[in-house]
Specification:
ABC transporter involved in vitamin B12 uptake, BtuC, mainly alpha, globular, 333 residues
Amino acid sequence: MSSLSISLRERLSIAVFAGVVATLLWVLDSGVALNFIMMTLYAALLAQAWNVLGGFGGQFSFGHALFFGTGAYVQAMAQVHWGLNPWLALPLGMVISTAVGLFVGALSFRYGLKGSYFALVTLAFAEVFRIVATSVPFTGAGVGLMVPLREGVDNMQFASRRGYGLLVLSLVVLALCLTHWLRHSRFGAWLQAVRDNEDAARAVGVNPFGIKLGAIALSAALMGSAGAFYVQVFQYIDPGIAYGPHTSVEALVGAIVGGMGTLWGPVAGALVLHVLADLTRNLFGQLPGINMVIYGMVLVLMVMFAPRGITGTGQSIRRWWLRSDRDHKKEQA
């Protein structure tokens, strides 16, 4: 199959996905179902943000909450302190999250940090930002910030989960379009070349520093949008939620379980993990930390038995089935 037909098929699949999910959000009246769709899309957005840098760029981050928390706090502070409309605060949060990503990336990539070193640096930065947010007054310190309740579409506060679901769906579709672009653009090819062999990429004229910096900027922007969305839904943020490890873990596990460097892997991983989380909650009640235990177990099992993730394993099975069917037809002929 040609790359053009693959590209067209991916665009069609994104359009179908958007149409089906939007229809479900529009016709369903169950608050439980709407909340499930909304939170699954939110988890998919986290995983997609991590996938840009970790899946396509090969730069594993343990501290993506750094960008999430920055976007969340900008969204909250813009309304509480600056009186800015939430629709304007969201892109502002993405821009400032991008600036933080560029800052961290410039420091890390300039000195050649990668692998476990880069992962620990991102984790350290997230912890530093958490401590700062706990200490300074404009973030509400340890108490956090609560967004004023002013329900209305113009204030990005919807009467039901349907509105929030459509909002996060638009962000997920934006991330899918970005991922599609990475899979078929020159920048995406350069990014994957840097991931596979940085020295070889440099030898053919690719600038690894600039490419990785672009990847972390895109990843941080998506993560910042997820933080802004979280604030609008729950109308509250504090340092533990903003910069704690749970968000970073949810982002990386969703991408790894679904399939890194793929279009639909983060969405599939988010769906599977969210179903597991709901089942676990129903079976074991509100045991603290049980979802993190489940995430850890799923991650270990996937690394051991399906390192390419759900979508990668599915593609391998499909190729094996087609090859077996083709061989069988040859034997019959």
